[in-house]
Amino acid sequence: MLVNIYGPNVDDQMFYKKLDDFISSNENKRFIIGGDFNTVLKVNLDKRGGLQSTNRKNREVITNIIEKYDLVDIWRTKHGTQQRLRGIRIQDSNFM
Q1: DSSP class of residue 2?
Q2: Residue 86 contacts by C-beta under 8 Å, 6 or more apart in sequence?
Q3: Which residue segment(s) compose the domain that 30 sits in?
Q4: For residue 5, what are the CA distances in angstroms to 19, 33, 35, 45, 95?
Q5: 25-68 pLDDT, tens per residue?
Q6: 58 close to 11: Cβ distance less than 8 angstroms
Q7: How many CA atoms lie within 13 A of 10 on its CB side?
Q8: Within a domain: residue 93?
Q9: CA dist 27 to 19, 31, 51, 59, 70, Å?
Q10: Does residue 92 lie within any of the structural domains?
Q11: What's the domain count of the chain?
Q12: Is residue 44, in this structure, part of any structural domain at all?
């Protein structure tokens, strides 16, 4: 089963509770879950600038779901401690 997520960009544990309930009710199926969770799981590796505590509660709920269902962050598994920065602002780049 392919599941696409577009998560809230504010702390909203109920959104992820619904995901947890969905996985739980379909636990006998195989999943690929992808999309934009709007949450940084490894702040020390993948967040630069802004508030370091962004969506802390979402991060906790997602981490619990990952552990509960033995899910894998395939990007993190493949790249280890390599940073995964989510985009470049034009003023930060040397394009011009």
Answers
A1: E
A2: 40, 46
A3: 2-86
A4: 9, 7, 5, 22, 32
A5: 998 999 899 999 988 888 887 777 777 667 889 999 999 999 99
A6: yes
A7: 0
A8: no
A9: 12, 9, 35, 22, 11
A10: no
A11: 1
A12: yes
